[in-house]
Design goal:
about 425 residues; alpha/beta; 4-stranded parallel sheet; globular
């Protein structure tokens, strides 16, 4: 379409928007009230443990990453947290989510009100360097048990089976450990149901994200950030399946009716990781140019999944149950869960510049983008590895890229004027000017 086209698409509010807000608020309220309601409260990353914990009965899992992101959206409290951590001798260049979480814990202030909730135990999936120590500090400070699962972050198809066995054995060990530290008998039927729910809910979210390839895009990245995180909070519950079924169905309707997230869409962009959570206004700023950010591999694969389709593109992933994998007992369920996580193509991003570059390029092409925003994120060492090299690779492939430094959860490392200047220059390089009001 013409760079200065005045065409406007139809738009309408998302019918499931209020439900997404309710799930988020209820999740954090449930954490605060867990002990009063007789539920187990556990903590760790949201990379997988919540589904394993489900076999213990009523429980809620405080995920460190989205909690750190929630704090980041409130710079005043976030800076208090960061200074509380630095005052104890920890380095400023550690994971920003981790520093927000630790600071909230050290200050004994839960962001959603009251004292910091004391979990029954920590169950952590070690994916990056920070994850390896994050919950050791939590365990020591709060005096609670801790179990860590080592995740193979980079592997080839040739050694995938060995990695699967490595993870399965660790997860089975963690279940026995959880029984010992809680005194509860583990219910394998609850685990099986949780695995089915996780796989189906994340497949539905992946399908909704793949529908965003449509022109005009039915969803924009700022809204996507509020939707994908539901899969982090409760993807192992039937509630998540129902929610993402609603999301998928409505997005399908929006595609069929030509409903746009950004009615002035004339340019499609993608980005490559966590944004500055305190400055999500950057996405609305780009809309002044008629630009819509249609997603990223990060928002597709962190809590979602997509599978190869006959035409070689990503689309609806088939769950273990749909593929006929057995789900009759504890080991079947754990094996299916491990397979589901290792099957995601984003598992290469922490250790393979080639894998991450290919992931970015493929998403850019399949979603029909005209440019990419690259987050040189000082708050996440893992997802920022290789970024300068990947930027050069993408430029060589003809992908226009704008890169800027920030810290996803520490506003002290953000220069708003510089970032907006860079975005203005980038949009002008794409021959786009701000639309008239």
């Amino acid at each position: 379409m013409s760079a200065q086209s005045s065409h406007r698409y139809q738009t309408r509010q998302l019918g499931f928007w209020q439900k997404a807000k309710e799930i988020r608020l209820n999740y954090y309220r449930e954490i605060a009230a867990a002990r009063e309601e007789g539920k187990l409260l556990t903590t760790g990353s949201l990379g997988g443990p919540a589904t394993l914990v489900a076999g213990l009965g009523p429980c809620v899992h405080l995920g460190g990453e989205p909690y750190g992101a929630s704090i980041a959206a409130d710079p005043a409290f976030s800076i208090e947290c960061a200074e509380a951590v630095e005052g104890r001798g920890f380095a400023r260049d550690l994971c920003a989510y981790m520093r927000n979480y630790w600071g909230s814990m050290f200050l004994d202030r839960y962001y959603f009100g009251g004292p910091f909730p004391k979990p029954d135990f920590c169950l952590q999936l070690h994916v990056c360097d920070s994850h390896g120590k994050w919950y050791q500090v939590v365990s020591e400070h709060l005096g609670i048990p801790y179990f860590g699962i080592d995740f193979p972050v980079c592997f080839t198809e040739g050694d995938k089976q060995a990695r699967q066995g490595y993870l399965v054995n660790q997860m089975l060990d963690s279940i026995e450990w959880m029984e010992k530290v809680t005194g509860r008998q583990y219910n394998d039927e609850l685990l099986i149901e949780a695995v089915k729910n996780e796989c189906l809910s994340s497949a539905l979210w992946g399908e909704a994200m793949c529908l965003n390839k449509a022109v005009p895009a039915p969803l924009d990245q700022k809204s996507i950030f509020s939707l994908y995180v539901v899969g982090g909070f409760i993807r192992h519950r039937k509630e998540a399946v129902d929610f993402y079924q609603q999301v998928r169905d409505e997005v399908k309707e929006r595609v069929a009716d030509g409903i746009a997230a950004v009615p002035s869409e004339r340019c499609r962009l993608v980005d490559d990781g966590q944004p500055p959570w305190y400055f999500l206004r950057l996405y609305r700023y780009l809309e002044q140019y008629g630009a819509v950010v249609v997603g990223s591999w990060y928002t597709l694969f962190l809590f979602g999944h997509a599978g190869e389709q006959p035409d070689g593109t990503w689309g609806r992933a088939k769950t273990p149950q749909e593929l006929g994998m057995p789900l009759n007992n504890r080991e079947d369920a754990v094996r299916a869960l491990v397979w589901w996580h290792l099957d995601k193509p984003n598992r290469s991003v922490f250790g393979s510049p080639q894998g991450k570059a290919a992931l970015n390029l493929r998403f850019y092409k399949e979603w029909g983008a005209q440019g990419m925003i690259m987050h040189l994120n000082r708050g996440c060492e893992g997802l920022s590895m290789f970024s300068p090299e990947i930027r050069l690779f993408l430029l060589q492939q003809g992908v226009p890229v704008v890169a800027f430094e920030h810290n996803m959860a520490d506003k002290r490392e953000f220069d708003e004027v510089q970032v907006l200047d860079r975005l203005d220059a980038f949009m002008e390089s794409l021959d786009l000017k701000k639309l008239e009001d």
